[in-house]
Amino acid sequence: MDAELTQLETQVEQLIGLYESLKAENRELRARVGRLEADNHSLSDKVKLAADKLEAMLEKLPEA
């Protein structure tokens, strides 16, 4: 009986450790997603600005 309780206690401790590890990893991944979304938004704005500038330059070209 004591051996079974000790084994169960060990398994519970391992489960708690895994839970804490996954919780920390999840927190890190959420932060990374936030940074990547911000980068994506910034790059999208830059692409739109470049496209607008290119379009304005093309409008200034004389037609042949």
Walk me through what this model shows.
With 64 residues, this protein is mainly α. 0% of the residues are buried. The protein has one helix at 2-60. It has one domain. The protein is rod-shaped and about 95 Å long. The protein is built from 1 helix and no strands.
Question: Could you write a compact summary of the structure shown?
Answer:
With 64 residues, this protein is an all-alpha fold.
Topology diagram in text:
Blueprint: H1 2-60
| Helix-strand pattern | H
Provide mean pLDDT, rounded.
96
Structural class: mainly alpha
Q: Estimate what percentage of residues fall within beta strands.
A: under 5%
Number of domains as seen in the coordinates: 1
Largest sheet: none
Silhouette: rod-shaped
Rounded radius of gyration (Å): 28 Å
Feature tags:
mainly alpha; 1 helix; coiled coil; 64 residues; single chain
